[in-house]
Write the structure tokens for this entry.
Amino acid sequence: MNSKLKVWLQATRLRTLPLSLSGIIVGNGLAFSNVNFSWMIFILSLLTTISFQVLSNFANDYGDGVKGTDNDSRIGPPRILQLGLLSRKELKQGIQVCVFISLILAASLIFLAFGISNQLYSLIFIGLALGAVIAAIKYTMGSNAYGYRALGDLFVLTFFGGVSVLGSLFLQTKLFTVELILPAISIGLLSVGVLNLNNMRDIKTDKESNKITMAVLLGARFAKAYHLFLLLGAVLTAVLYVKTNLEPSYLFMIAVLPMMIHLRRVLGYDNPKEFDPELKRLALYTFLFSILFSIGQNI
């Protein structure tokens, strides 16, 4: 493989993709029994979400690299700009290409779902797509990056949970009921859990770089308690939703067992380096959770 292509592939951070797809899987799992379910909408939803995640990863690499947050003291995997594998100009061009691809995919998805007859729905989802692009870029880029003001958790809950689950469901069914907020919150909380692990791992270097995260605000001890709240809250909201069904299926609880083992490990860790492998584990557990939850809604 061409060395430059390998660098760009490394910059995409493939390990982040399963987590970003979890909400889409749950939303489409909830919509699967609908007579109007479209596999093409499902596939386009996945591709659009991947493009948003890659855009976010590129922008995060650029923003933290420019601000000096990514440095030799950082515990996690080294970033592309930090290593000098791409220049600022190259990475910024990559971000621009990702914005273009993301908006083209989002526009195609919206047109496929709503055509030209549902203009109000189309406008709402165009607004959500633009919001997702802005959120991906402004997480670490710019002087007012919200990831540096302890707002990352809120945005992850909103986009990985609410927009991803409820948005993908609505694209398929054009329907919404209040109880559907519960699985959206569940996936959102698990996604925030992955972010919280990242922030607990980086708490020392973030403090030194004036990057204020929830973990920095709470401190190491209370960040663990926050992690407990996130995971238990995710399980509880999923259980509450399933209980509303006439024939409830708790298949997703298979994924909860390794999550609880993960939680026990995290609560016992003292060395920030120990949090790093837990990021990948929780992301994969969330992905498994989303698949099992979706299957359970259709058996």
Summary: The chain has a mean pLDDT of 93. The chain has one domain: 16-296. DSSP finds twelve helices and no strands in the chain. The longest helix spans residues 39-67.
